[in-house]
Specification:
four-stranded antiparallel β-sheet; alpha+beta; 41% strand; 142 residues; 1 helix
């Protein structure tokens, strides 16, 4: 009689946990994002329209921003920059990030991919805009 109760208890536990694990399964789909010419890629943000923003390094070690929308990539670089890093995009398709000018000074950038505007925190030696807040270096400190 004890063995019968033990088997019944084991069966009840197996049914309970078996049905819980069956309903807890979640399936994910992953998409590899490799902009043309990239050797190292980072995706940083996605908006409600499914636009994805990030940056990559090319074979020469140069950093470029990229935008993925409607199944294709667009390289987005600040005009004249030696490096561009795009890290946020909002639901109005406004991108934020930073770039290095020819002298190696870091500036913030904001705007749609085809109309970036430079911004700098007054009195700073370096501005990095990541969309949520601005970071500025004053005299080498952050």
């Amino acid at each position: 009689m004890k063995a019968s109760r033990l088997y019944s208890a084991i069966l009840a536990v197996a049914i309970t946990f078996g049905s819980v694990s069956a309903t807890a399964q979640i399936t994910f789909t992953f998409t590899q994002l490799d902009p043309p010419g990239s050797v190292s890629t980072e995706a940083d943000d996605i908006n409600a329209q499914g636009q994805i923003i990030g940056f990559f390094f090319d074979a020469a070690g140069r950093e470029h921003g990229w935008l993925f929308q409607d199944g294709s990539f667009t390289q987005v670089d600040f005009p004249g920059a030696s490096a561009t890093r795009t890290v946020n995009i909002n639901n109005s398709s406004v991108i934020t990030g930073s770039f290095l000018d020819a002298a190696g000074v870091q500036h913030g950038l904001v705007g749609p991919a085809d109309q970036f505007t430079q911004f700098d925190v007054p009195g700073s030696t370096s501005t990095n805009g990541d969309g949520r807040f601005l970071r500025a270096a004053r005299g080498g400190t952050k």
